[in-house]
Amino acid sequence: MAEKKTIVLGDVIESIKRFFSYLRSQFKLIALFAVIGLVLPLIYRALQKPAYAASTTFILEEKSANGGGLAGLASQVGLDLGSLGSGSSLFTGDNILDIIKSRVIIEKVLLTPISGNAGKTLADLYLEFSGLGERLPAPVSFAIPAASVVAPAHTVYQDSVLYVMYEQIAKKNVSVDRLNKKGSIFKIVTVSQNQVFSKNFAERLLKETTTYYVNVKTSNAAANVKRLQARGDSLLRVLNAKSYNAASFQILDPNVAFKSMSVPAEVSSRDKSIVFSIYAEVTKNLEMSRIALVSQTPVIQLLDVPKFPLMDDRKSYVFLGFAGLLGGLLVGFFLCLYLYTDK
To answer: What are phi and psi of 58, to 5 degrees?
Structure first.
């Protein structure tokens, strides 16, 4: 039968005293780790580049479509309301997150001019502060000439540089997410070394996304309204012509012997009635299409916009110094504990 080992409280206290005495003897080692833990984070903080964060928060109101009856009426005049007749949406769910960070949107934002900088664009500013311009084999500029109404076409080299900037920005500088997984509130955050770039990029990214979003979402309905408007204008011109034609055939007091002369007036009046009926139907469908277009236009409501001065997103020296000092002390303590128990 194994003997039971008795633990005496005095022995425990004595062991603790010996351990703390050993810790005092290793004060220099612990202090060394504490200094290292204090200095390294401060050096890292000093070498870090500024990180100015600009955030934009917005609500996306996706209006549901219940256009079954409207789609049926529109089909009678040969029109297809497409997405207006269903509740589906290209931007439902997380698709809008991918659209915001898409190449077409980011490049459009990069090519927007900075106010008060003689045509200088956000792309030129990014090349300056990011250091990318210095690493390029040849200098490049995306500035828009003052006398140019439309931006000049880009060369293959410029398009290649734009693609490199897009990849860097999409991966490192821009983040987009929902504030709530089931909600419709989204947040765009742009982080860079330049306050002007961060603020302008975050604001214009939302603006370009909104424009692209609304155009794609309502393009089919807008085309239907345009077609109906053109058809209605054409029918109105025909109806006016028929009215003048019918009036020209009117006989105030026809002789009974010449009743056949009233036939052209009757035919013209009949044609006028037919054109009027068609015009009334087209006008009705035009108004319904306009209502549908308005009801399907999405609404993006801003909640928060970035304002100067932007806060530097880096951790403060005090926080990093305290965390590093605490970490160094813990490393030194556990190292001494390991060496003590290994003796």
So the answer is: -145, 160
